[in-house]
Specification:
The complex is a heterodimer. Chain A is mainly β. In chain A, 13% of the residues lie in helices and 34% in strands. Chain A has one domain (12-91): Ubiquitin-like (UB roll) (Roll). In chain B, a hairpin with a 4-residue loop joins β21 (378-380) and β22 (385-386). The chains are: A mainly beta, B alpha/beta. The structure holds FE2/S2 (inorganic) cluster.
Chain lengths: 98, 472
């Protein structure tokens, strides 16, 4: 779990994750916003279905893949949260079978 | 971006210290320069979010971090164009850059290209490292710098290297709690590092480094000589199991485990362009070959900063300037004498910044057991391939990472070997009883980052279309 420092400055940004309302701080990436809201698991892997959370936060591991505004497999750590953004965690197996 | 040109004299890829310094120097000399960067704001990873971090108290991130702000301002005033949020997925031999930006792909030609792609954390494959809650220490640092987020609950840091201690120090400054630091620095490293002590004593690292270490040791439980490590939990890390020396296994509760064992060059783009690379035994990593000016084996492509071999942020900055001077010379803007004359102060500064590096490399060289993991460890996170599977493939005649790809699919996932390549190299070398130099590395092909069909379809096909896209 992660918490925000008390003096962290910035505007609040509303978004939804799997249909639930949540709030980010302006400048948060999608991956950071999920972690700040207590959501550690972004996706399950297509190979074994194992849950994954962001590992590198700099665009190299691809463990942060989520669906953003209906576009799947986006790197959550490389995209900034925008007001009203709809984020969905991904089930890798389901995406493959679909 | 109405002011983006259709081509540039110089394109710099990566807005960390090397890229910022290179682009600034070149643009000031009046050549058309563009800086392309994946992040939305300048700074690279080391100075990430330095222009916009929500962490207001400057003491939390420390003066070395804020030094980065001093690189951004001159860059902004240099006249260079800047394309943040841009993914470069290919560079052709005739120096055409394939990039994606705002969901559309385009081709941008340049006369010279400086790669300043920086470093990434060396993979630290231990059993359980794919569990949610396990992250790189560098990732935790990004969360702190760019979002003011710190881990809560039981937080364990494990590994070796300056960045691990820096993160611990920053966490303490931020008022975050750390359950323990598990130090995996091998005891024998101290003995091997001693002969290089004099360079370190003269370096800028020693005063700061020792103070930081003492600060952390005073406030956090540090468990040294850790020789084995694994994360356990069901769908989320719950505990860390470790061994000290030859001692019995011990267990610590952990909801967050932050791993780190140094950084290595991020070489995927250089590799895919075809730049020759070689095995660096001291830093235990593959490094693209460069000359004293950062020139690679590919005409028109040079490399500056940690992507050309780990030297740290200050070295990167000076290298960036040297590489830019050479680019100016190659582009016919300055003659050889002026290049050499202008380079002198930067060379001197680079030498100074490099002092102590050998000591640090030797001291923080990760232990064999953490570079060559046990059988049950997943080495390729994308395809979930274990070390045992790699060893079995070697028994069947697989001689290097490229063959391992076709045997096991490792290195074929979206990360393109960034998180498994070094480990696969070391595991195969160990199993065959040869040097990593002999087993080689993945041969990478563009695109080095996945691009969507929609992005590809948006690619302009003719000169005038390219023009239209770039001036939309
Ligand atoms: S967390 Fe590694 S790519 Fe996003």
């Amino acid at each position: 779990m992660f918490r925000r420092l008390h003096d962290a400055a910035g505007e609040r940004v509303p978004f939804t994750v799997d249909g639930r309302a949540a709030e980010a701080l302006a400048g948060d990436t999608v991956a950071a916003a999920l972690l700040a809201n207590g959501i550690t698991v972004c996706r399950n892997t297509p190979v074994s279905g194992a849950p994954r959370s962001p590992y590198c936060m700099m665009g190299v591991c691809f463990d942060c893949l989520v669906t953003i505004d209906d576009v799947g497999n986006r790197q959550g750590c490389q995209v900034r949260v925008a007001p009203g953004m709809r984020i969905e965690t991904q089930d890798g197996k389901r995406e493959i079978d679909r | 971006m109405s002011d983006v040109k259709t081509s540039y004299d110089l394109a710099v890829i990566g807005a960390g210290p090397a890229g910022l310094a290179a682009a600034t120097l070149a643009a000031r000399q009046g050549i058309s320069t563009v800086l392309l960067d994946e992040q939305p704001a300048p700074g690279g990873q080391i100075y990430r979010s330095v222009t916009e971090t929500p962490v207001r108290d400057p003491k939390v991130l420390g003066p070395d971090y804020w030094h980065g702000a001093g690189l951004v301002k001159p860059f902004q005033e240099s006249g260079a164009d800047y394309l943040p949020g841009t993914t470069v997925w290919s560079v052709s031999r005739n120096l055409e850059i394939g990039l994606s930006r705002e969901g559309a792909a385009r081709i941008l030609p340049a006369k010279h290209i400086i790669l300043a792609t920086g470093a990434l954390e060396r993979p630290f494959a231990v059993p359980g490292w794919t569990l949610p809650g396990v992250m790189g220490a560098g990732a935790a640092q990004v969360l702190l710098k760019s979002s003011g987020l710190v881990a809560t609950g039981n937080v364990v840091l494990a590994g070796t290297g300056p960045l691990l201690w820096l993160l611990a120090w920053q966490y303490l400054r931020a008022g975050a709690e750390i359950t323990a630091v598990l130090d995996t620095t091998p005891r024998a490293n101290w003995r091997q590092a001693m002969p290089h002590m004099t360079g370190f004593v003269r370096s800028c690292y020693i005063g700061k480094g020792l103070k930081l270490l003492l600060d952390v040791r005073r406030k956090v439980k540090v468990i040294g000589n850790v020789t084995a490590l694994r994360a356990e939990g069901d769908g989320q890390v719950r505990s860390v199991v470790y061994r000290q020396g030859n001692g019995a296994e011990q267990r610590l509760p952990a909801e967050t485990l932050l791993l780190h064992q140094g950084v290595i060059p991020n070489l995927n783009l250089a590799n895919a362009i075809g730049c020759a690379q070689s095995w660096d035994d001291a830093q235990r990593c593959w490094t693209p070959q460069t000359d004293g000016w950062g020139a690679t084996t590919v005409e028109g492509v040079s490399l500056a900063g940690d992507g050309a071999g780990i030297g740290g942020a200050l070295s990167a900055e000076h290298q960036g300037r040297l590489t830019a001077l050479d680019a100016l010379h190659r582009l016919g803007r300055i003659d050889r004498q002026q290049r050499d004359r202008d380079a002198a102060p930067h060379r001197e500064a680079l030498e100074k910044a490099r002092q102590g590096r050998v000591f640090l490399d030797t001291l923080y060289k990760p232990a064999q057991d953490f570079r060559v993991p046990s059988d049950d460890t997943i080495v390729c996170r994308c395809e979930e391939v274990t070390a045992a599977q790699v060893r079995d493939a070697v028994k069947l005649g697989c001689s290097g990472p490229n063959q391992a790809k076709s045997f096991l699919r490792c290195g074929m996932g979206p990360c393109q070997g960034r998180l498994c390549g070094p480990t696969v190299t070391e595991v195969i070398a160990d199993a065959r009883g040869v040097s990593p130099a002999e087993v080689g590395y993945y041969r990478l092909r563009p695109p080095v980052k996945p691009i969507t069909l929609a992005e590809l379809a948006s690619l302009p096909k003719r000169e005038d279309e390219i023009d239209a896209v770039l001036h939309h």
